[in-house]
């Protein structure tokens, strides 16, 4: 049996037992059970409870072995001390895989460590285990969601997320939703008593539904195996890793969370260098980087042209590019002369960054500048830096006549991207965070959505855009060099 | 005449001539004139135009010398070559100060350099000049606004902003508005032919309406004088400096923008070290840092306690704190035992960061944990990291019953801040950026406003919060050490 088949019960179960499902509103097993219903699970959902005969209108069974049909997958919510017995039942029933959501194992104390050893030895006799101490699986295609995830998006997408943190397994898909990022498989695997990051990477390497792999890791169980698999995977799909606990203070926090050995920052630097995996350090950086990989065509280099309105913004852009190790090639004299013909006569810079004179440029200027920049062989990407693509609306005073003024400029980046099939990147900041700017934000989000649908990633600041682009370009440089 | 009196015509003019005001919708002078009307200027606004006899219903004069009354301040929009003659008129009329918005001076070419020398020599005969090549002044108390600033906030606040970039002089007050940040005086001073950053710092040192000074600088005209003034000012008011052009690429961009000598990064590092001025690198970092100074009581150290819901978020918080040089002291065994009594029994960490078990904690747990942390002598600030203070609303499905569940937790940070008068810092990220999350964002902004009104700064991520707090704590450490 190949790894794809082996993981079918986990990510695409036809029947799913929830052990510890309950009608009680406060119990996690009950909350989880209702989350699956809310999420719209299409297979057979089977409540298992020793004391309740019916949960949410569905007949409940005391044990999985009491259920007459086949069970593909089980989620375990009983207290830690009861887990080994329940897991034995699952093995006996022939359930191929389970997730143990319950915490209180090796991360807690000696007793927990002993319980986890029991879980391991039962698992070794023929049942795959995710967890314990995790939030489990979110798989839109399979209709399965993590515990507090009944309202997560139902549409699948090409991004996978492996997480040693349960919280992030729910938080990241939610935060990603509005950025147009959807997930193929998310797996919070906690203490990794059986299935670990290596197994999941092997699976995602093969998984045709996954194009981009992201992860939050605190430690790995087998360094050499991890390195070998990661090398292989990065040659096929980008792997973006948030390694928690790289600082001294962070590595102490890891001990009380998943009890992983977090590894030194030097070791991890070497891992990133040898594999081409992308190292990031926050939710925002993770999602920004995914946005770049999701929307941009592969690049050979990290040569960027920035177009902005105003001299100060050009200076800031140049600083930000250099800090992110993104290259801003100076245009040749010929190109500068061509740009002078389209840029405003006075004061504008055409060296790169291009100062287009105003954050609300004439459509002809914008089109001309983009056309010249994108036709340069040594330009991999054009970034439009805080140009005004939507009106700034305060106190709800939007008016259609004003909105219409923005239409011509709005379409140009999309047309130029189509013409050159090069990376076109938008920076559209939140203009005002206040309550009376909400109509500006509505307008901005509408424009963001339309750009994303056309394959143009949108970032909240130039600094964030160039960091994401830098990760993207470094990955492609590494992959092309080592392919 | 003291410096405060000398700057009255600039920031609080009773009469203001706009030279180049016009009925033409495309001309900058006309746009500026209408911006001042829209902004609600209460003094005498006087259009000056050689060809138009009336602008926006107001009688226009060919020259300032034709106007019968006194003129406090003039804004000059005529082409660069006509500026010296117009400035002579202003001197003749006895106008104490002008701003020259027109570009095309030393930043452009030799001819511009010559024109700027003429401006300087006229100014030296008795008229103060802001600019040329600038956006001028925004002074809510004086009713004056920068060119594209008719809709900027009319309420003044305690923050000043000095800018060598015109664009940022308009952009930053707008971006700040929703963060509860208001300005005393903003001055885009461009090429600084007469009034420069040193003069403005001297003025703001005295200005009773300014408590926090921010700036975007590309270069300084007189290094030793700047250093001396900056040292003095930092002992009275924090000075937050965005130095553009610190990288090689950025310093090239500076040349074509304001033609300043941008100075090496080593020189600037030394300036920051010797003065205690705060160095920041982006709009977001500038506004985050202002938020910290605006809301937090002075601190002796940078010892922080982070309270979050979930183990992964604790690891990430520890990493972020260490990267921002913020200290997370480990609680004593006694304190940890006290915390264990309020924290959830299993799996939670009480070492610091405190893992309160869930991003939506029980009010008693939140109150207990904050109470214990804030009563520790060596804790300067408590950060609530992504706790859910508002419901996440999708598709407009807000309901009052659900909203009410959040009320008890919402009040606790405010009560705790009052009880201890210590820094309490909120991290409330945008939960979803998508169009169908707009009701979540409305709820979030409402809560952000209410915290800010109570002196609790709110940040979009922990990383941003700890960087801002680090700047804040470093400033106070320096000031207390050198006072």
Would you write up a description of this structure?
- The structure is a homodimer of 483-residue chains.
- The first copy, chain A, is an alpha/beta fold and 483 residues long.
- Chain A is built from 18 helices and 18 strands.
- In chain A, the strands form four sheets. In chain A, strands 8-10-9-11-12-13 form a six-stranded mixed sheet, with helices on both faces.
- The longest helix of chain A has 21 residues.
- At the A-B interface, helix 6, helix 9, helix 12 and helix 17 of A face helix 6, helix 9, helix 12 and helix 17 of B.
Question: Topology, please?
Answer:
Two copies of one chain form a homodimer.
Chain A: H1 3-6, H2 8-11, E1 15-19, H3 28-39, E2 44-48, E3 54-55, E4 58-59, E5 73-76, H4 83-93, E6 97-100, H5 110-124, E7 128-130, E8 136-138, E9 159-163, H6 166-177, E10 183-188, H7 197-206, E11 212-217, H8 223-234, E12 239-243, H9 248-257, H10 265-275, E13 278-280, H11 283-295, E14 304-308, H12 311-323, H13 333-342, E15 354-355, H14 363-375, E16 381-385, H15 400-404, H16 407-420, E17 423-427, H17 438-453, E18 458-459, H18 462-482
Parallel strand pairs in A: 1-2, 1-5, 5-6, 6-7, 9-10, 9-11, 11-12, 12-13, 14-15, 14-16, 16-17, 17-18
Antiparallel strand pairs in A: 3-4, 8-10
Helix pairs in contact in A: 4-5, 7-8, 11-18, 13-14, 14-16
């Amino acid at each position: 049996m190949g790894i794809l088949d082996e993981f079918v019960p986990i990510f695409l179960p036809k029947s799913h037992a929830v052990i510890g499902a309950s009608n009680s509103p406060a119990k996690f097993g009950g909350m989880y059970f209702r989350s699956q219903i809310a999420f719209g699970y299409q297979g057979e959902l089977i409540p298992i409870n020793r004391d309740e005969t019916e949960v949410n209108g569905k007949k409940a069974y005391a044990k999985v072995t009491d259920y007459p049909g086949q069970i593909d997958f089980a989620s375990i919510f009983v207290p830690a001390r009861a887990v080994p017995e329940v897991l034995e039942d699952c093995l006996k029933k022939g359930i191929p895989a389970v997730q143990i959501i319950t915490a209180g194992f090796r991360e807690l104390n000696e007793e927990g460590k002993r319980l986890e050893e029991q879980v391991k030895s039962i698992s070794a006799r023929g049942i795959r285990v995710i967890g314990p101490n995790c939030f489990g699986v979110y798989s839109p295609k399979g209709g399965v969601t993590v515990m507090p995830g009944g309202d997560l998006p139902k549409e699948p997408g090409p991004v996978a997320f492996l997480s040693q943190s349960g919280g992030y397994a729910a938080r990241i898909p939610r935060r990603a939703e509005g950025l147009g990022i959807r997930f193929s498989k998310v797996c919070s695997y906690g203490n990794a008593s059986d299935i670990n990051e290596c197994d999941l990477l092997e699976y995602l390497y093969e998984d045709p539904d996954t194009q981009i792999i992201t992860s939050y890791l605190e430690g790995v169980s087998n360094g050499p195996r991890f390195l070998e698999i990661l090398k292989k995977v990065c040659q096929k799909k980008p792997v973006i890793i948030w390694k928690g606990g790289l600082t001294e203070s962070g590595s102490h926090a890891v001990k009380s969370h998943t009890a992983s050995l977090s590894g030194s920052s030097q070791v991890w630097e070497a891992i990133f260098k040898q594999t081409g995996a992308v190292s990031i350090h926050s939710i925002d950086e993770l999602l920004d980087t995914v946005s770049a990989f999701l929307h941009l065509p592969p690049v050979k280099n990290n040569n960027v042209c920035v177009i902005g309105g105003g001299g100060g913004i050009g200076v800031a852009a140049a600083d930000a590019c250099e800090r992110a190790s993104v290259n801003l090639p100076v245009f040749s004299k010929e190109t500068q002369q061509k740009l002078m013909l389209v840029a405003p006569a006075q004061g504008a810079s055409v060296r790169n960054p291009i100062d287009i004179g105003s954050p609300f440029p004439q459509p002809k200027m914008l089109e001309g500048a983009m056309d010249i920049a994108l036709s340069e062989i040594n330009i991999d990407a054009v970034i439009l830096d805080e140009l005004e693509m939507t009106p700034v609306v305060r106190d709800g005073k939007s008016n259609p006549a004003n909105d219409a003024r923005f239409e011509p400029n709005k379409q140009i980046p999309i047309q130029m991207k189509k013409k050159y099939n090069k990376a076109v990147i938008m920076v559209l900041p939140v203009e005002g965070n206040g309550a009376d700017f909400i109509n500006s934000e509505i307008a901005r989000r509408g424009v963001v959505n339309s750009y994303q649908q056309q394959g143009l990633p949108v970032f909240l600041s130039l600094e964030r855009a160039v960091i994401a682009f830098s990760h993207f370009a470094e990955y492609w440089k590494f992959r092309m060099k080592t392919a």
